[in-house]
């Protein structure tokens, strides 16, 4: 938003003395608005001029790099070049998964209890790491495989039922 505001002010500074004055004050005071392009160039390692389209591309590349660092999240994004894999459909399927509200409430309670009450125990699925919300949600391959298989079988059952 700051980048768009800065671009808008810079484009119209020749025709609007008010916008030119705003830009001058922002640059003199070295505010966030004045420094946004330099900040974005450093944060995303951009060598060229920062534009909205180039920023969108850099942010997406940064997001993919962060996801690839995660052990289990990276599986879907590593397969995104495969024509049989649809990231949008996979995300929609996970969002519309068949978790009942009661089960979701239980999961939230368990998560809060473990986080706030300091339960220090090993993961009961893999027994290799501490049981944390992050481990269970993103790193425990046994847990992820079980949930994925359960949802897939439920979906296949519904698909074959309606076919």
How would you describe this protein?
By secondary structure, this protein is mainly alpha-helical. The protein has two domains: 2-69, no CATH class; 84-162, no CATH class. Helices cover 70% and strands 0% of the residues. The chain is built from nine helices and no strands. The chain is elongated, with a radius of gyration of 24 Å.
What's this, in brief?
With 163 residues, the chain is mainly alpha-helical. It is built from nine helices and no strands. It is elongated and about 65 Å long.
List the helices and strands in order: HHHHHHHHH
CA-CA gap between termini = 47 Å
Q: Report on the biggest sheet.
A: none
Q: Residue ranges: pLDDT <50 for 5 or more in a row?
A: none
Mean pLDDT: 75
The portion of residues forming beta strands comes to: under 5%
Structural class estimated from helices and strands: mainly alpha
Question: What is the β-strand count?
Answer: 0
Count of discrete domains: 2
Number of helices: 9
**Rg result:** 24 Å
Helix content: 55-70%
Shape: elongated
Key descriptive features of the protein:
9 helices, elongated, mainly alpha, 163 residues
Describe the secondary structure blueprint for this structure.
Layout: H1 2-11, H2 17-29, H3 32-44, H4 52-69, H5 73-78, H6 87-95, H7 101-116, H8 133-139, H9 141-162
